[in-house]
Structure formats: C-alpha cells, structure tokens
Amino acid sequence: MQPRRAGNAQGIDVSHYQGNIDWAKVKADGISFAFLKASQGQTFRDSMFVTNAAGARKAGVLVGAYHFIDAASTDAAKKEAANFAAAIADAGGIEAFQLPPVMDYEEVQDGMNASNVHAVAMAFLTEIERLTGVRPMIYTYIGFASNFDASFSAYEVWMARYSTSPPADTAAWKRWTFLQYSDGTVGDVRTGGGRKVAGINGPVDLNEYDGTLEELKHAYRHDSRDGGNDNGGSGDGGGDEMTDAEKQQMADLANRVAALEKLVNMSGNQTPPAWANDAIAAAKKSGYITTSNDKGHAELVMIQMLYNAGLCNEDLVAFFRSFSAETKAAIDALVNGKGNA
C-alpha cells in the first residue's frame, strides 16, 4: 500500500478511554477529523460518544462513528448494526456525520473460520448501509486483513499499522483510505514530530487520510437517504453533473433493462424459474434474503435472468461477484455453465 504523504489531513480516533476532551485545543493542534466509538456488540454504547460528537462538531472537526464487532453469526451482526444505527441517531443522525460509519473488525469469536468472518462482516455492512443509507467503511489491522477476500475491495479500508513503513497489499486492498499509524505510544509520529495531541490527557490513536483536508471535506456526501453518497476516496468529490461517460453508462443500463422487460414479467408475483434456485439458495445462505418472498428476492433472480438473457457483461459479473463469497459462487456457476437455463 502507499506510504504517508505530506499534506494529508490528520486525525484521531477516540472513545471513553480518553475521558473529557478539549476539542478546541485538538482542532488548534492540527487535527482535522476524528472517528468516535459509538457502540459495541448488540447493546453497548460508548458513554462519551454523544458528548464527543457534539464537542468535535462545535470545534469544526470532521466526525465519523465506528462500531466494534463482537458477532459470531449473521443474525447477531444485524442486531449489532441496529445498535450502531440507533447510537448514530442519538448523536444527531447520519446527516450530522461528515465521515462514513465504520465497522471495526479485528477479532473473532472462538470457533469462527474465514467463511464465518465473511458472512458476519457482509451481514453487518449491508444492514448498516440499509439502515443509514450510507456505504460504510472497514477498520482492521494488517494482520487481520487476511480474513477479507477480494470481494471486500468494494469497501474502503481504514488500516491500522503502527510502523514507519506502509502496510503490505492484501487480497482486498492495495491502498488505504485512512491509516492509523500510531496508538499514541508506538508507531510513526505526527508530521511535526511526537505523538501528543493537545486537549487530550494521555495517548490517543493517530490517523491520516489519503488526501488533503479540502479533498476530505468533499469525499463523503450523504445529504440524501438513498445510499447514493459520493465516496470519492482521495479525489475531489466531483460535482453534481454527470460526465459524458456516466451518461453513456446510464443509457446502456436503461437499454439492458428495456431488453430484459421484454423477456420477463416484471410484476414481481410470478413463480421463479427452476434455474433461479441456486441463486436463491446462495442468497439465503449469505443473509441477503430470508425467504423466497423477500423483497430482495427479485434482484437475486434478476442476476440469473440478466445472465441467461445475454445482458450480463463483464462489469456486471464483477459487480455481482463483489457481494459475498456465496453470491460469487453463484455467479461463477453461471459463468462456468452450471446454472444456465
């Protein structure tokens, strides 16, 4: 992954362990953003979350919230997402946060394997996005990152590595969006030297964004609830106007949908064809749907309909593969000729 860079925006992440924070002093000391612990598990709320959110905003620090995962099942993961969403609502709602919600995943429960980690992580990520309308981000450390396969590259990563050298590439990520480079006692040092941050008694985690403060201000926009936030990474966030390439992509998609409508009954009340069973089974296993009548069911059936109608190009195949290991297996079965009608 890339090294730190002069001019990158500097930040911290905090919880109740930091006690009372003088956010005005934090801001004056060159800290531009802060991730705040909101919750953990299905019921725990950080006692300083609401106070920290209000104080940081008042001082002009960009704020985000994170949740520490304890779940060992997809059902538990969804309940944890509900706890996280409720905590965000109590602190002003998702519109009051300039940075995306974060899933902090760095340890697993006894007996869990990589497949369990994938399922729990994806269940949490999809549920918190459904509840908040904003695509979340993943926090993890370089040693744990091997648990995430390439399907998680659809999510930006906040990587922890306490070193003067950058993290190694992983299966999911070749670049970090945020880097936690010190816990305040070990690791790299701030741009001006040292690890102390004014306004905080004791050590605090130090972070860097892959871009300037101005770029960070425009990177994440979730002023609507439709999930269409502009996650621009280290770019400038762009404007509201579509580019010619984007307009062409929309036109191509409209043409595909029009062609599809000629082939299938779009009323939503038809009996799924037999060749859709593999996709339905995979979707149930991965937690995307709970019954064959779930609202998400039509979308999973459409994956196979698109493919069998010859409308699923390479970009769409790659997109569907990014959902989860189970859904990747279903689309791979189609591509390999095992799921055709």
From TrEMBL:
Highest rank taxon of the organism: Bacteria
SMART domains listed in its UniProt record: Glyco_25 (SM00641)
Keyword Glycosyltransferase: no
Entry keyword set: Glycosidase, Hydrolase
Name of a matching Pfam family: Glyco_hydro_25
Protein's UniProt keywords contain Hydrolase: yes
GO molecular function term, any single one: hydrolase activity
Residues in coiled coil: none
Segments of this protein annotated with the region Disordered: 220-243
Gene3D superfamilies: Glycosidases
Family to which the UniProt record says this protein belongs: Belongs to the glycosyl hydrolase 25 family.
Protein name, UniProt field: Glycoside hydrolase family 25 protein
